[in-house]
Design goal:
This protein is mainly alpha-helical. It is built from seven helices and two strands; from the N terminus they run H-H-H-E-E-H-H-H-H. The longest helix is centred in the middle third of the chain and has 23 residues.
Amino acid sequence: MTVTSDVVFLDGLDFFTRVVEQVDPGGWEAASPCAGWTALDVLGHLGSAIRFGAAALRGETYQWPTVDRPAELVQSDPAAYWADTAAAARQSLQGADLDLVMDTPMGPRSVRDRLAFPAIDLFVHAWDIARAVGIEVGIPVPVMEFAHSYIDPLPQEMVRGQSGAFGPELRVGPDASPTTVFIAWTGRTPR
C-alpha cells in the first residue's frame, strides 16, 4: 500500500496533537532543537505550515505571516491554538480536490503534492517540541519512508542550508534507532 500525503497529514495531526497535549504550560518556553526558537516558536511556525496545507487543500494561496518570532502567532492557550488549527485543517481535507494543479514556486504542483511538506513537518516538529520538553517519541517508519521518497529527489539547495528546511545531515552510530537516524537526516542533533 502506498502512503499518500493526505494520509500522512491526517496521521501527523494526531501525532502532533498527542505531543501538544503532554506539554506543561511552562514547557512552551523551553529551548527547542531549532536554533533560537522555543517550543512555542515551533508551535507558531508549525501552525503556519498547517494553515498553508489547509489553504492548499482548498485550492487557495496562503500568505505567510510576518512576525519577529513565530511564538507571536500563538495568541491563546497553546493547546487551544493547536486544537483550532488542527480542526480547521481536518475540515479543509474533507472533499478537497487533491488532484487540482496549482502554480507554485517549484512549478505546477497538485494539491496532494503541495500537502507533502506540511505533512512531514507535523512529525518533525512534533519531535522538536517533544525533545524541548523531554518527551520521547518515535516517528513511524512509513512516515520516514514517505519523507525520503518526497525529499530525496529534490535539489539539496532547496532542502538544506539557510534557505532550506533541513540542516546538513548528521552522522549517527550503527545502533541508532530509526527515529534517531531520521532526525539526524533532517540535520537535527538527536540527543
